[in-house]
C-alpha cells in the first residue's frame, strides 16, 4: 500500500510540474560542456524531474535489494540454529 501511495504522489508531482511548465512557454538556454541548446521550459522541467526520479529509484532499489538479501541470509541462519536446537523444550 505504501508503494501505491508513493507512486500516486510522484505521478501527481509530475503532473503538477507539467502544468507549471505548460503555463510557462519560455525558451531557456542550457549550456553543455561543448555546446548549448535552447529548449522550452516544460520540456526541461519534465526531463529534469524524470531523471531525478530515476536516479532516486535506482539508489532506493539498490538498498532495498541489499536489505532483502541480508534478511534472507539471516532467516537461513536462524533456521539452521533452530534445526540444531533441542526439540524437547517445554514452554
UniProtKB/TrEMBL annotation:
Domain Lipopolysaccharide assembly protein A: 24-81
Signal peptide segment: none
Topology term for the membrane: Single-pass membrane protein
Coiled-coil segments on the chain, per record: none
Keyword set, alphabetical order: Cell inner membrane, Cell membrane, Membrane, Transmembrane, Transmembrane helix
Transmembrane segments: 45-65
Location of the protein in the cell: Cell inner membrane
InterPro entries the record matches: LapA, LapA_dom
Name of one Pfam family that matches: LapA_dom
Family: Belongs to the LapA family.
Role description: Involved in the assembly of lipopolysaccharide (LPS).
Protein name as catalogued: Probable lipopolysaccharide assembly protein A
Organism: Shewanella glacialipiscicola
Gene assigned in the entry: lapA
